[in-house]
Design goal:
Layout: H1 3-63, H2 69-93, H3 106-146, H4 151-155, H5 158-204
Helix pairs in contact: 1-2, 1-3, 1-5, 2-3, 3-5
């Protein structure tokens, strides 16, 4: 018996088995990541659908109140803000993979989808910082206008301005916190899972 050949044969078998096991693990990670990306995409689409619902609502409200220029102005600001948020999320959503293509460099695709998802959520975060104060002031002005007041008169009222400032200081951090909590509940675990899978694949390579 040639011990050297037997040892070489044994090492080759161990290498083949190790390669098969590694390949199985990588395929399992790919499949799980594909499912994770698909779920993230669906949840982002649901968020966009809610934004679209508000856009349609504002649009209909504007059409039925064209005779009230101040009301139309306020609603147009809301409409424009939601439209910017929707376009920002859509630009990232449409680039996300609907399915992971195993003939392509899958790790790169996973990284790309992770970055796109984070950008989409960041768009919403920036949108919130800008829009929350506007929404509070706009909502207060809308209430005044619908009761027969004017925007000009309200903005000259020091009591109105102080109330608006107080509400902004109190409500904006609360709205920011609530949005962050909801996003973490909806996306946090999935985003962590995808990033963990990316790290696992990098370690296996």
């Amino acid at each position: 018996m040639d011990l050297r050949k037997e040892w070489q044969k044994l090492q080759e078998e161990k290498f083949i088995q190790s390669s098969i096991k590694k390949e199985d693990i990588m395929n399992a990670i790919y499949q799980e990541s594909n499912s994770t990306i698909s779920t993230l995409r669906k949840r982002l689409k649901a968020k966009m659908n809610w934004t679209l619902f508000f856009l349609i609502g504002f649009g209909v409200f504007i059409l039925f109140n064209l005779q009230n220029s101040e009301l139309v102005l306020l609603l147009s600001i809301f409409f424009g803000a939601y439209l910017l948020g929707f376009v920002g999320m859509w630009s990232q959503y449409r680039q996300m993979s609907t399915d992971v293509d195993f003939s392509q460099p899958t790790l790169d695709l996973m990284k790309t989808n992770d970055q796109l998802m984070r950008r989409a959520l960041n768009v919403e975060r920036v949108f919130g910082v800008i829009f929350f104060p506007i929404a509070i002031i706009g909502g207060m002005l809308l209430s005044k206008v619908m009761r027969g007041g004017t925007i000009e008169y309200a903005l000259q009222d020091s009591t109105f301005l102080m109330r608006a400032l107080t509400l902004i200081v109190i409500l904006v951090p609360l709205m920011w916190w609530a949005t962050s909590k909801m996003n973490k509940a909806a996306y946090g675990e999935l985003m962590d899972r995808l990033r963990n899978n990316i790290r696992r694949l990098e370690d296996l390579r």
